[in-house]
Amino acid sequence: MLIINVKESDSLEKALKKYKKKFEKTGIVKELRSRQAFEKPCVSRRMQMIRAAYRQKMQSQDVEG
Fold it and tell me: pTM to 2 decimals?
């Protein structure tokens, strides 16, 4: 359960914004999407390696360029 501290001076929009930010940080939606279909461990590891290589490639381009 998410608990959001809201002051009386805060508007409803600010409270909703705080709620959305906390909800996003918990990763609930991301986990639900990943659980929709089973993914073999070797496939998930392969995707992690591909993502890591891509990030590393992009960082090296930023440093060089």
Answer: 0.53
